[in-house]
């Protein structure tokens, strides 16, 4: 180290450890059935590191999420990365627990990659004269190597210095980013220059010195494909440079002084190892008696523990130890009749469909599977093109099979169990089976008990609850170019895969169904989630009509307006330039116009993200304001007006979205393909897009929207008398808040004062900080803090509510909505302050957002029956947060609006009135 006493900080690239461990070890599960091979490998690698390479300070750096500031620079950044392996997803949280159990700080920060945090810590230590060792072999970190920063390969246990960097890139660490920008990186979807590989890139940088000098020299190069590519893709290379350059000025979540190496707590570490089933490590650590670990004994224990990794783990307990398969292939009606009879005798069967596509409204059923008991399942193929056992065509026809199954599906005495029932019901409807009842859905049974705790996919639930890893779709169809359609999979392999899905579904039902009562989720599932399945299936099948001509007109209008705005931008700038180029825009604003407030990145380019432009626009800089307007139109055009036309079903003239029932932590529905819940509503352009959603001839659209439902729930659950009174009297809640907090009269209130109260009201729901409120209102953080303090002083019940939710989350790991839904809050006890603060905000908001979601779901379940009983010709089309949209006969619109309003307002009983506002129109914008 450069200075005696200066810190030697060892930074572990957490992702590198995790993925190396996951791919190096065979599948392993802990006593609860959770996959732990990556967790076990991570623990062993951390043990070895602490034994052999501990400096004075140590931390593990994790990625907080996939979306970072780089996605604002280049939306396609890392877009092509495949989904994480399902076995790995539940292990991330356990690995963070492991880090804490070993007494090592685990650090992450939203909006930034782990590499940026590593770079910032390395710079901070280097500036003090200390040394930083990065434990990773990631090439992206090699740009950091210098006099005070080195790297170590965690597998080979070899140092990585300037010589190793030059051997890999052909340049020293200071030129690595220039080479990377030229050659790009397909793994992270960094574009680079097409046709330029590592050797050419390093040769160019060694000849010209930097990326920018290479690009400047390109026009003078001899004619070649390389020259043409350098000229045509220069901006892509500059963007690539931004993407590969690590930030060294990220705010440090923990100061370096807090990362000092400390002894692990024997009790905490021992208990955690026991819970994971890592008893061998516990004993090697000498933790049998729970005695305190000294630094010396800890090191000695670690040496003993760091031996070869085991190849097996403690098998999870299963409710029934029955084999998965072999299963039957049913190719004639007589065999199918035997399975139908077995289902009728047992009174329950699991059902699963196989299709030739993922859109249930368009996919054909290739086959279906049935399970009547654990280990007893079959596959019924319909459209397979060839088999190993029989010539092509020896299968039951779809029509004959479904005719035989129709009585079973309609039999009220036989329960049909699905995993993600809505998808299968829509597939059956397309095939001609309209009635399948009664049904259960293992995905929703699990979701009702564990929203936010883990994913709800069948494979993840199987590993978690059954300790069994099912055959994957990739296993039978292949991957990439080698993938074949499922109908071309041979029947023996198709049966093993498809029948196992039904078998797993039935076993999950046996395990999870009884837990609904003990987890106090039975009413939630029976009264809300299960009946909502058919309601949403109906909505998806109906779709909503769109005006393709209007959407195309809007696209042309937006394009024309963009052209006009662009011309005005060029006039203001004094010259033409590429408005979509952040680099060129930065040069205009800060170099040529000399505006203040610009910030340069490491490469020297100016930042021109939306926050920078908004600050300039707030200062009255017209050019920044016009750039923001141009960008908004560009996004609306690409995301909505262009995309919706392509997503319209040409046969119906309607857009058919898909509602995801088990994604969010709070119980809210989400919408995709297309996402109709994110269409902007507060701008004229957003309203124009909504005008493209129309009612057919003779009908109108009816919108019914809960008014300020989350604030009403807050007034109710926090028991705030003045807010409750305001809602009961129908007063303007924001004006009443302003009057109470700021001591001003309701009559003649200054609109700015009301706006500030409104910002506080809504901000409190999301745990807004003084900094956030100040930025929103354009006032100093100190003044914003005074507003928040005054708010809590006037409404102490709200602070008590917030404190109670934080405490509830820390005590149980979840918070509960007014209707009893558990919303799990990962990270509530995290050592990382940013992660913990985010979880606390979730804990405050989840009961309110989740309560609103529960209430509108309850209304959605009740409305179809009420409307049918009232003989009102109405169909429900969309659910968008707190709004429901209907299509109704014009002459029945007013009566329908009255009925809908009543049912929605009576959906739940809370301490303040629920108010629903309705609107009727020929299109969505008019109705809303």
Automatic annotation (TrEMBL):
Pfam families: 5_3_exonuc (PF01367), 5_3_exonuc_N (PF02739), DNA_pol_A (PF00476), DNA_pol_A_exo1 (PF01612). It comes from the Bacteria. Residues 327-517 form the 3'-5' exonuclease domain. The keyword Hydrolase applies. Its EC number is 2.7.7.7. Belongs to the DNA polymerase type-A family. Single-chain monomer with multiple functions. This is DNA polymerase I. It comes from Acetobacter musti. The lineage of its organism: Bacteria, Pseudomonadati, Pseudomonadota, Alphaproteobacteria, Acetobacterales.
């Amino acid at each position: 180290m450069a200075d005696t006493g200066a810190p030697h900080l060892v930074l572990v690239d957490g992702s590198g450890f995790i993925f190396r461990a996951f791919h190096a070890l065979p599948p392993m599960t802990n006593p609860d059935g959770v996959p732990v091979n990556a967790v076990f490998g991570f623990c062993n690698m951390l043990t070895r590191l602490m034994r052999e390479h501990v400096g004075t300070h140590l931390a593990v750096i994790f990625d907080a999420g996939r979306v970072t500031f780089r996605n604002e620079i280049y939306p396609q950044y890392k877009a092509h990365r495949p989904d994480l392996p399902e076995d790995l997803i539940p292990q991330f949280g356990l690995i963070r627990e492991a880090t804490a159990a070993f007494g090592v700080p685990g650090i992450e920060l939203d909006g930034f990659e782990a590499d940026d945090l590593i770079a910032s810590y390395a710079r901070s230590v280097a500036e003090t004269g200390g040394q930083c060792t990065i434990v990773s072999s990631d090439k992206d970190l090699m740009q950091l190597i210098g006099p005070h920063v080195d790297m170590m390969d965690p597998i080979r246990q070899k140092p990585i210095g300037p010589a190793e960097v030059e051997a890999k890139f052909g340049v020293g660490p200071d030129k690595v980013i220039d080479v990377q920008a030229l050659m790009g990186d397909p793994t992270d979807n960094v574009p680079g220059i097409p046709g330029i590989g590592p050797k050419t890139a390093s040769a160019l940088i060694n000849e010209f010195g930097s990326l920018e000098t290479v690009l400047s020299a390109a026009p003078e190069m001899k004619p070649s494909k390389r020259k043409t590519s350098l000229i045509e893709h220069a901006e892509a290379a500059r963007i690539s440079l931004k993407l590969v350059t690590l930030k060294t000025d990220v705010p440090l979540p923990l100061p370096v002084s807090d990362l000092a190496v400390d002894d692990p707590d024997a009790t905490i570490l021992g208990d955690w190892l026991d819970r994971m089933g890592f008893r061998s490590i516990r004993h090697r650590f000498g933790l049998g008696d729970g005695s305190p670990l000294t630094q010396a004994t800890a090191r000695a224990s670690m040496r003993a523990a760091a031996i070869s990794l085991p190849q097996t783990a403690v098998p999870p307990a299963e409710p029934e130890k029955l084999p998965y398969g072999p299963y039957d292939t049913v190719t004639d009606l007589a065999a199918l009749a035997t399975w139908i009879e077995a289902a009728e005798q047992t009174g329950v069967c699991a059902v699963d469909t196989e299709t030739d596509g993922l859109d249930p409204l368009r996919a054909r059923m290739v086959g279906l599977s049935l399970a009547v008991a654990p280990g007893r399942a079959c596959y019924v193929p319909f459209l397979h093109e060839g088999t190993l056992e029989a010539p092509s065509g020896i299968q039951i026809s779809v029509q004959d099979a479904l005719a035989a199954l129709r009585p079973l599906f309609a039999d009220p005495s036989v329960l049909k169990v699905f995993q993600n029932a809505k998808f299968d019901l829509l597939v059956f409807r397309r095939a001609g089976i309209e009635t399948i009842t009664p049904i259960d859905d293992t995905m929703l049974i699990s979701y009702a008990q564990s929203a936010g705790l883990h994913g709800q996919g069948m494979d993840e639930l199987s590993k978690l609850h059954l300790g069994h890893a099912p055959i994957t779709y990739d296993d039978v169809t292949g991957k990439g170019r080698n993938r074949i359609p499922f109908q071309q999979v041979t029947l023996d392999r198709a049966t093993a895969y498809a029948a196992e899905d039904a078998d797993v579904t039935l076993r999950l039902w046996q395990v999870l169904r009884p837990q609904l009562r003990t987890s106090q989720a039975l009413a939630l599932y029976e009264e809300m989630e299960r009946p909502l399945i058919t309601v949403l299936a109906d909505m998806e099948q109906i779709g909503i009509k769109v005006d393709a001509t209007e959407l195309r007109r809007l696209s042309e209008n937006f394009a024309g307006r963009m052209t006009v705005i662009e011309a005005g931008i060029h006039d203001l700038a004094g010259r033409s330039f590429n408005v979509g180029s952040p680099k060129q825009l930065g040069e205009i604003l800060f170099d040529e116009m000399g505006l203040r407030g610009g910030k340069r990145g490491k490469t020297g380019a100016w930042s021109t993200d939306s926050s920078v432009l908004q600050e300039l626009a707030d200062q009255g800089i017209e050019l920044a304001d016009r750039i923001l307007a141009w960008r908004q139109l560009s996004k609306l055009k690409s995301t909505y007006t262009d995309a919706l036309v392509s997503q319209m079903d040409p046969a119906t003239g309607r857009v058919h979205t898909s509602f995801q029932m088990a994604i969010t932590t709070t119980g809210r529905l989400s919408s995709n393909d297309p996402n109709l819940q994110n269409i902007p509503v507060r701008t004229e352009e957003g309203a124009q897009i909504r005008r493209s959603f129309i009612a057919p001839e003779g009908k109108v659209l009816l919108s019914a929207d809960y008014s300020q439902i989350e604030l009403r729930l807050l007034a109710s659950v926090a028991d705030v008398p003045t807010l409750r009174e305001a809602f009961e009297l129908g007063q303007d809640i924001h004006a009443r808040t302003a009057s109470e907090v700021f001591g001003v009269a309701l009559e003649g209130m200054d609109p700015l004062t009301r706006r500030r109260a409104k910002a506080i009201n809504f901000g409190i729901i999301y745990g807004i900080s003084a900094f956030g409120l100040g930025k929103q209102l354009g006032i100093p953080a100190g003044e914003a803090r005074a507003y928040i303090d005054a708010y809590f002083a006037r409404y102490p019940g709200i602070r008590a509510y917030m404190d109670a939710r934080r405490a509830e989350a820390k005590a149980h790991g979840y918070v509960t909505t007014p209707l009893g839904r558990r919303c799990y809050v990962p990270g509530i006890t995290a050592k990382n302050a940013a992660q913990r603060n985010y979880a606390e905000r979730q804990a405050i908001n989840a009961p309110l957002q989740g309560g609103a979601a529960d209430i509108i779901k309850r209304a959605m379940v009740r409305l179809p029956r009420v409307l049918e009983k009232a003989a009102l010709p109405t169909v429900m089309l969309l659910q968008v947060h707190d709004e429901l949209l209907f299509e109704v006969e014009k002459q029945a619109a007013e009566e329908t609006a009255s009925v809908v309003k009543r049912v929605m307002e009576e959906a739940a009983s809370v301490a303040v009135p629920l108010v629903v506002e309705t609107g009727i129109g020929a299109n969505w914008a008019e109705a809303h």
